[in-house]
Amino acid sequence: MNNNLDHYITRNIKSLYKRKLLAPILYLLLLLVLWFCLPVDSILFPTIVKDSDSLEKMYKNNDQYIQASLLNLKFTGYTKTAFGRTIGYYYYTMRDNTCTFVLLSPRTCEEGLPSIEEISVYARIEKSNAGYQQLLSKIAEDLSWTDAGITKKVNAYYISEPGFRRIISAVVIIIFALTGLYSLLMIIFSIIYYLFPVLSPPCQVLSVFGRPAELLAQAEEELATLPQLATEDMFITEHFFIAIAREGIFIIPIQEIIWIYKHSTLHKFFWYHFSISYTLHITANKRLYVQLPKNLKSDIDGIIDYLSEANHDILVGFNEANRLKIQEIQGKPFQLEKFVTLLKKRI
After folding, report:
1. Which of 80, 243, 268, 276 could form a disulfide with 88 if both were Cys (CB 3.0 to 4.6 A apart)?
2. How far is CA 163 from CA 92, 126, 306, in A?
3. 112-133 pLDDT, tens per residue?
4. pTM of the full predicted structure?
């Protein structure tokens, strides 16, 4: 028995899904980092703000998304615009003996009510920026104050209802949830496939031809004892074609193969043609279709010659007559028709 090929398929399935664990694990770690660095939980569960709560402290603790009940708001006479339209109206109110500015959306304040006795809003705490400083300068000018004087009297942080961005926040949460769930499922299934290779997709594909466990055991035994033909990543045994490629792992009973052909791809950089690669296409019963790109011409020719000798019913070569025969056998598989369209464009 060839020790190098003993349980070769199983070992490569384990190796494949061990590698596939890395990306989703790293992505979940990234989501965790973003969760703690960005106010994601604050978006999900806005903090209810009391008058005694410090806006600065909440902002620094990433409790930036809030639900606030505000009293006795007065319109400043100033608005915030973006792209030629008004997106907010600046009001001021007293919170814990400190003057705090509030930016309300046009709908909430009915486009600039002079005063609002009480209102409850979902908003975001925002830090002083150029626009906010410009607002303070204008108000200071109206009051005949200095910029330094008004800065001492007002809160450096303000409440912005338009800053809550409900739609964007909802999209961010959905992306976090869906991609996180997908990564978690990838990890779970990769672990299952690593522990039980027979449950992995490369083996379960065999269920259309028989019992996956039995066919896998037979393929392993034939590959370990006496492979008929072997290239770097493709093997032929007495009853199976086996490929261990970057695109995946494929185990196909030779008697189920109905069509094989190759096509070439010219790789070029601008006007310089630097290499040609060949893709092996295999169509089997039950609409199983496999393509193995970037192989040597000699390897593919050897595979095609051996398979066509092992099963004389296999159609060899891409042409219209063979395509119509396959279409008659198994209808119009989407992938086959898609490849035909692509090939015609290339021609």
Report:
1. 80
2. 17, 8, 67
3. 999 999 999 999 999 988 889 9
4. 0.73
